[in-house]
């Protein structure tokens, strides 16, 4: 998946270069982008643009930086709220497990962990979607308040804010299950607690299966809800708009609407931000946690197959044709995708090393038994002496870590270092092999630059010839003799 992610991004660079050249947007941001209308209306003063020399609306950079810093404090506060919700979901999971154990039903007691995990994942999904809507509206207001000059700067700032929040919002719970759940349980007589409740432990199968369940519910559940929203909400908006127009036309003579009027009566297009955000979050799910949930790419493929048709229906039949805007690339979204592809290598290395049983089994096969006989019993720890009742028949002399634990820790860290170096090296090789600009496009751009220079040189030569010709003509006219028969009108004859 890491190789696929980098290859995908490399070929997107090539596609992006082709599109930017086709629409003449290769240097659009630096040279041609004008200030935003909102910025022009709200800017407190005017200042000369150092590039164009024209007077433009101006907003002090120090004031903007202070506003960005204040907005960052708001973002941190909202992220703390996400952490509070995460702790709430953890406590909910513990309460549900206790309730299942106290029902007296053998079936519920057996499945208490699964019931608590699945129900808490659903509650977490609902909180994630709710907080996402709230924060998107808040981030929009913060970005407007920061007064960014161009539309590209505004969209990049808004995108970065929303993604940082959504990243923590969607991925905090899977991160907890993958790397923290079951690490601070303690032992009988000395259990770890959180707000008076005993820290939860992973099931007998380990945390990886619980992580897969949670990823399935969050990822697939989000996709289903988003697809339902993309189908239902435009229909409801269109119905509401038709009723509103019908009320306006109620007193008018009914006549058949023209095509352009019907197009204008469609609902206004809201842009592509939500579409990009959905794809980028999906990209994170299928790359960061693929070691725990290998079916994620399959569900992403099925979702995208459905979503293409839903988006076609929405943009063609429900929305007005959007106003085209020139841009050089997809902005900060590409940087986010690159960061996710690199983060996925590190996260998957830690998942394989610390969350899965791959390395413990490998080391047990090497040191004890190649057929894994006795591995399950070997992996179970006994309680330290004094922590169990007098009827206990088995306990360790002390609660210290064994030599195998330290050997396994060294193997895990060595695996992470080797895995990351090998994968990152291969990614750099792919980056080096695949050029960012297709060869045919590079040749076309070189040809265009050559023709532009040639045309400029020819134009300069032509101007020089014209200036020399006009100068020589004036010299010849000034030296013409005055005819003798002109008499007193010599000046007119000369002219």
UniProtKB/TrEMBL annotation:
Protein keywords: Membrane, Transmembrane, Transmembrane helix
GO molecular function, one term: chloride channel activity
Main location class: membrane
Domain Anoctamin transmembrane: 1-448
Transmembrane stretches, start-end: 68-95, 115-138, 158-179, 280-302, 330-354, 403-427
Intracellular or extracellular location(s): Membrane
Record-linked Pfam families: Anoctamin
GO cellular component terms listed in the entry, alphabetical order: plasma membrane
Topology of this chain in the membrane: Multi-pass membrane protein
Recorded family membership: Belongs to the anoctamin family.
Protein known as: Anoctamin
Natural source organism: Erpetoichthys calabaricus
